[in-house]
Backbone:
């Protein structure tokens, strides 16, 4: 057993978190009283102001609402109507940043949307509308295939539209951004539509029986310039205030849901970590900075702009810990973004803290750690090392509500984050430094990440060539 030099503070932190209702109170306000917090909306602004006031009530005197301006999106009216071989209207929603459209086209079914599925259908996709499911691990795939990758492959293959079918029964359409991450021209180039599993299966049966299905798509969505706010607060270090340990989670959700598990369970866990650290660990040698990111769901916009705006400080960040939906993750492990030199330290902390969390290594491009990772900052997050081939469940649907989130999970996330931050901000030396761009490129060019990274570069180039 490793001795615990922080035992007294650990007991205070854990005891307070497990005897306070603050986590659930904050979750209810963000989700029930404020609402979805969609990027650029009044609800997102209200959430930012609420979190600022909470942080100030916890004793933080330097809370910043940092403006983020970008190309946002507002939902209009959408219809999807089968015009052949039958006439039938299908309930649907558009995906954020989808452009306004009015056209008729043929559907091409690419199944679960693995790279091989697109390759097999390549000759049929151009000029037509791709239909694919939300399976994150298509059959035979060794890695996660994100919605944006399927959309990007559709775009590069010349598709005229993209239909995303939820693979869970009874949850209805699942939402998710498809826009380009350039804040000046965020609009997607082709429409993205989401439908339920049941309606997707109906269309697939029509295709099997008749060979062709023609649909008419119409939408009146609007892409427009908007403003959001990152909420930033910090606990200044007493000996080395320029050195920073950073905890972050986005707070924006999607307009069709409360986003209680994704992301608000992580949002309130971060707030709770900030509360107890200010109360019991205010004299740490190194600064702890807390970031509540805006506009993550439509392209990591808040965190990306932060990295661009404050690039001069990035050398000083010891570690960025991402907490996206951390309170709703069953098995809370630490996923390092390919920092093997940090693994032993976190494993020792697991023993010291008497918390059985695993420590793994992986990178994905779909949360707010990624802009920091691309800038070379040591990064990781609270995640699960158990590979799930299912997907989001009720996440990104209208059923991601407060009743799905348990107090136990949020308490575990808050306590883990606070106790890790305490340790990361206490050591005199940090074992790793910021990576160079050459080192980052070498990691992304490894077999595990090369395919997705190359596709991302091709899609970005496509946007640059075709955006107005």
Residues:
């Amino acid at each position: 057993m490793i001795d615990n030099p922080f035992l007294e503070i650990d007991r205070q932190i854990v005891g307070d978190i497990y005897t306070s209702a603050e986590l659930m109170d904050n979750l209810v306000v963000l989700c029930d009283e404020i609402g979805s917090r969609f990027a650029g909306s009044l609800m997102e602004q209200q959430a930012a102001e609420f979190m600022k006031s909470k942080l100030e009530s916890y004793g933080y005197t330097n809370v910043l609402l940092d403006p983020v301006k970008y190309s946002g999106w507002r939902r209009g009216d959408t219809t999807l109507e089968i015009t052949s071989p039958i006439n039938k209207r299908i309930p649907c929603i558009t995906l954020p940043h989808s452009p306004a459209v009015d056209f008729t086209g043929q559907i091409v079914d690419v199944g679960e949307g693995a790279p091989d599925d697109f390759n097999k259908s390549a000759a049929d996709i151009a000029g037509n509308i791709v239909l694919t499911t939300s399976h994150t691990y298509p059959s035979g795939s060794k890695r996660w295939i994100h919605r944006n990758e399927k959309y990007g492959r559709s775009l590069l293959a010349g598709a005229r539209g993209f239909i995303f079918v939820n693979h869970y029964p009874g949850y209805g359409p699942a939402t998710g951004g498809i826009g380009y991450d350039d804040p000046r021209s965020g609009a997607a180039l082709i429409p993205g539509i989401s439908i339920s599993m049941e309606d997707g299966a109906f269309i697939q049966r029509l295709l099997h029986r008749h060979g062709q299905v023609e649909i008419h798509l119409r939408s009146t969505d609007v892409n427009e310039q908007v403003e959001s706010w990152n909420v930033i607060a910090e606990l200044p270090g007493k000996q080395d205030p320029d050195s920073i340990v950073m905890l972050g989670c986005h707070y924006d959700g999607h307009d069709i849901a409360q986003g209680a598990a994704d992301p608000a369970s992580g949002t309130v866990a971060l707030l709770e970590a900030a509360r107890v650290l200010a109360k019991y660990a205010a004299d740490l040698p190194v600064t702890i900075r807390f970031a509540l990111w805006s506009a993550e769901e439509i392209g990591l916009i808040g965190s990306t702009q932060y990295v661009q705006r404050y690039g001069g400080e990035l050398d000083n960040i010891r570690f960025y810990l991402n907490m996206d939906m951390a309170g709703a993750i069953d098995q809370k492990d630490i996923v390092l973004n390919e920092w093997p030199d940090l693994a032993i330290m976190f494993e020792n902390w697991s023993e010291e803290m008497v918390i059985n969390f695993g420590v793994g290594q992986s990178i994905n491009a779909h949360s707010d750690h990624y802009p920091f990772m691309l800038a070379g900052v040591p990064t990781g997050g609270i995640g699960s090392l158990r590979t799930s081939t299912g997907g989001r469940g009720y996440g990104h649907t209208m059923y991601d509500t407060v009743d799905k989130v348990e107090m136990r999970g949020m308490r575990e996330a808050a306590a883990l984050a606070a106790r890790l931050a305490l340790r990361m901000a206490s050591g005199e030396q940090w074992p790793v430094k910021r990576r160079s761009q050459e080192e980052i490129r070498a990691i992304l060019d490894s077999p595990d990440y090369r395919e997705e990274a190359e596709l991302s570069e091709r899609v970005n180039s496509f946007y640059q060539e075709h955006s107005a």
In short: The chain is about 35% helix and 20% strand.
